[in-house]
Amino acid sequence: MKFQRIDLDKWNRKPYFEHYLNRVNCTFSMTANIDITELLPALRQKGMKLYPAFLYMVTKVVNTHREFRTSFDSDGVLGYWESMIPSYTFFHQDDQTFSTMWTEFADEFHVYYQNYVADMKKYGNNKGLVAKELEPPYTFPVSCIPWVSFSGFNLNISGDGRYLLPIITSGKYFEQEGKTLLPVSLQVHHAVCDGYHASLFINDLQKWAKDYKEWLGIE
């Protein structure tokens, strides 16, 4: 996957990037409820799970906006990936631990879903932090907390404060006023994303949930 270097001196975001990376190192999170009232029964009718559909939707959003693909590479070079795939967590019920998995992405949902199913069948019983080795560098983290319908979620990342990629977490969906809502939290670094970009993510994710017939192949 191609990594495109950013020329900082020609980047119109340079003063914001330097301020929020070097002077006031700052991340922020936003949580919103995504309406999946129609999407959930459509998936169930096809015998499909919500989690891989969620992974598909968030990946489509991430790959639409460069701000969510901007990071440092292994050499510390600032740039952005041409496209990215999710590195997602899954739960082991028997010992209440979790592992991470990555699955090759496909623009066609049904292809990605089958890739997900195949990976879970092959690696889903592997214990430890990493279930599937050789994770490529062009991944972003996604996780799920399906036991609680949270109204806010925040991660505190220590270190040098140079982690720039979005961190996406979903919660337990719930019913409210006749709608099925899925809480979704997005955490970003202010050096590369503002409130505007976080809003784009939430609004685009909602659009993908609403336009489910197109990518599920329902007429």
From TrEMBL:
- Which GO molecular function entries does the Swiss-Prot or TrEMBL record give? chloramphenicol O-acetyltransferase activity
Designated name of the protein: Chloramphenicol acetyltransferase
EC category: transferase
The keyword Nucleotide-binding belongs to this UniProt entry's keyword annotation: no
List the catalytic activities from the record. chloramphenicol + acetyl-CoA = chloramphenicol 3-acetate + CoA
Family under the similarity heading: Belongs to the chloramphenicol acetyltransferase family.
Q: How does it assemble?
A: Homotrimer.
Checking PANTHER family in the record gives: CHLORAMPHENICOL ACETYLTRANSFERASE, SLR0299 PROTEIN
UniProt-listed SUPFAM superfamilies: CoA-dependent acyltransferases
Relate the protein's function as given in its record: This enzyme is an effector of chloramphenicol resistance in bacteria.
| Provenance organism | Brevibacillus fortis
Single GO biological process annotation from the record = response to antibiotic
Active-site residues?
H190
Keywords from UniProt, A to Z, are: Acyltransferase, Antibiotic resistance, Transferase
| Residues making up the signal peptide according to the UniProt record | none
- UniProt-listed Enzyme Commission number(s): 2.3.1.28
**Has the keyword Hydrolase been applied to this entry?**
no
Q: Which domain of life is it from?
A: Bacteria
**High-level lineage:** Bacteria, Bacillati, Bacillota, Bacilli, Bacillales
The record's NCBIfam families line, in alphabetical order, gives: chloram_CatA
Query: Which residue ranges traverse the bilayer?
Result: none
Which Pfam families does the record cross-reference, listed alphabetically?
CAT (PF00302)
